[in-house]
Design a protein that fits this description.
Layout: E1 2-9, E2 12-19, H1 20-23, H2 31-37, H3 45-51, E3 55-60, E4 65-67, E5 75-81, E6 84-90, E7 93-100, E8 105-106, H4 109-112, E9 121-124, E10 128-134, H5 135-142, H6 146-172, H7 176-186, H8 196-203, H9 207-221
Antiparallel strand pairs: 1-2, 3-10, 4-9, 5-8, 5-10, 6-7, 6-9
Helix pairs in contact: 8-9
Length: 222
């Protein structure tokens, strides 16, 4: 029994089959993921056949850890739906430094590139859905395939660019208020689901100060 997937790219259809029994239990291949693969038009049908079997799918409840500080995790994650936070523990406190939403790539570069334990954790803030691939298995495949290497480089390039833009904005922001407004704009459908404690940590202020900030901004809108 076969599942036929038609992927449209570069003006024509690429038609290929995936063994239903072997692959479908591992990955829920939907139009959302198909549209994502369209962003890599240089991948041939044969190369897609190499990548797709390595990809798995998982639904998560909120507050699920996909990467834990102090441990090695060799998975690269891609968010289909939901919201995640990246944080590290220092002096008994959790410091949130980044969030990841739909279409974001997540993972620990400490583990993936340097084969060291992660210096931070990644946790789902909401119920979420993710695709993930074992980087070690993928690395074996890319050694003899330039396009698979380019596939990896494109992922890193896009994510590093996004992170760089956020870092630059953070460094140029004149106030905590600007940072908070930017966060609410970027995560306008999700930010209200983030606990105040995590938002305060991301902004670098206490929870009490954060509550005052919210009240002040609400008054200015009235």
């Amino acid at each position: 029994m076969f599942l036929i997937i038609i992927i449209k790219k570069i003006g024509y259809n690429l038609l290929f089959c995936i063994n239903y029994i072997n692959y479908c239990p591992m990955i829920k291949f939907d139009f959302f993921f198909k549209s994502h693969l369209d962003k890599f038009p240089f991948l041939t049908p044969n190369e897609l056949m190499i990548v797709i079997p390595l990809i798995k799918f998982k639904s998560l409840k909120k507050r699920s850890l996909i990467v834990k500080q102090g441990q090695i995790n060799t998975h690269l994650f891609w968010v289909q739906d939901g919201l995640f936070r990246l944080y590290y523990e220092e002096n008994g406190k959790e410091v949130t430094f980044e969030f990841g939403k739909k279409s974001a790539y997540l993972g620990s570069l400490d583990c993936l590139i340097n084969n060291k334990v992660s210096t931070y954790s990644i946790e789902s803030v909401t119920d979420s859905k993710i695709y993930f691939i074992d980087y070690i298995e993928f690395s074996k495949k890319k050694k003899t395939n330039t396009n698979l290497l380019n596939f990896e480089l494109e992922i890193y390039k896009n994510e590093l660019y996004k992170k760089m833009q956020r870092t630059i904005f953070k460094s140029k922001s004149n106030s905590i208020e600007d940072l908070y407004i930017n966060l609410t704009n970027e995560y306008k459908d999700l930010y209200h689901l983030i606990p105040s404690k995590q938002l305060a940590s991301y902004l670098g202020i206490t929870e009490v100060s954060f509550c005052r900030l919210k009240k002040r901004l609400l008054k200015t809108k009235v």
